[in-house]
Specification:
alpha+beta, 5 strands
């Protein structure tokens, strides 16, 4: 069910290294990942979800409100994520130079569908 939705991101956005549906503890619920990037994306998912938990725990989000979307740009990968129902994260990893706005639009379109299935 989730795999079909994640596959749509990979199909419609050029440069996707992987798309993952995670819980807040970085446990993968579903993933569509290129084999060459699986280990890197697994580590990245753990670190990004940990950063979100730290922000919430330290009270940084109390003044600004909950995180709905985040973007991390690194040298070789860009990670774009959206929070779902406060307990899950839809994450897409893109190679450098990929169309971030197209990926953002795809995630925005998919989030309601994924939330209904959760």
């Amino acid at each position: 069910m989730f795999l079909d939705l994640l596959q749509k991101v990979s199909t419609h956005v050029e440069g996707v290294q992987g798309c993952l549906l995670l819980d807040r503890d970085a446990v993968s619920i579903a993933e569509q990942v290129l084999p060459a990037h699986a280990e890197m994306l697994s580590s990245l998912a753990v670190e990004l979800t940990h950063a979100l938990r730290l922000l919430a725990r330290n009270g940084a989000l109390e003044q600004t409100g909950p995180c709905h979307e985040f973007l991390f740009r690194m040298q070789h990968v860009t990670a774009l994520g959206m929070s779902l129902q406060g307990e899950h994260v839809l994450l897409v990893a893109l190679e450098a130079g990929a169309d971030i706005e197209r990926a953002r639009r795809m995630l925005t379109l998919l989030c309601p569908w994924v939330e209904r299935l959760l």
